[in-house]
Write a structure and sequence with these properties.
Keywords: Signal. The chain contains 2 helices and 8 strands. It is mainly β and 147 residues long. It has a single domain, classed as Immunoglobulin-like. The relative contact order is 0.24. About 17% of the residues have low confidence.
Amino acid sequence: MSSRPPSLPLALGLALIAAAPAPAQDTTATEGLVLELNRISEGGDGTCQMVFFGQNNLPDSLAEITLRLAVIDANGVFQNMLALPLGALDTGKRRFAQYNLPLACADISEIVVNDVATCKIAGSAEDSGACLSGLTVSSRTDIALGL
């Protein structure tokens, strides 16, 4: 048997696979409700523009969902409470929501989902606990998103 080095096309192919970016997080595999802090950018007026991504992977459509978020500064001190309405979300539906916060992004260390203000399953007048119990959070930014 001869010991030949791998062919150039094979070596280039393996190098391209290794250099390829990781695939985006598959939010459809997560059951429940998904919330992601997707993007942040500094506003010209000293505000932090935040873009949140939400997806309903619950078995039921939501007539209305609003999350209550707490903003924590760089020193770990509570700064602000905000409501993030995502509206109606059918099963499998995805939605982006933008929020301008009156703080510089660099002054924020974490956003905490403090509570679910409203979680109404379609066809029901009562609030459901399914939104909070099935909530998964993540962040693609330097600001942490937690429960």
